[in-house]
Amino acid sequence: MDKQVKGEIIAKFKQSENDTGSVQVQVALLTERINHLTEHLKNNPKDNHSRRGLLQMVGKRKGFLQYLKDRDIEAYRQLIKALNIREIK
Known about the structure:
By secondary structure, this protein is mostly helical. The protein has one domain: CATH 1.10.287.10. The chain is about 75% helix and about 0% strand. α1 crosses α2 and α3 packs antiparallel against α4. The protein is globular. About 15% of the residues are buried.
């Protein structure tokens, strides 16, 4: 992910002027990386090192989403709708 794409994602999901670390921003950045790595694995199915990294990112994103769901359900619903991802169980 290059600086321009990362900056656009941060600008879209930030909560305040200098926000780069809120849960919403972190989930959005992880989602972008997950989508990119998913495409990579479609072309390289034997790349197990990247697959492990993908699973770690998915787990981290799930933790962030669970945290957000527990703290602010409306923000959680808006975020999963904006990112077009499934709800966590």
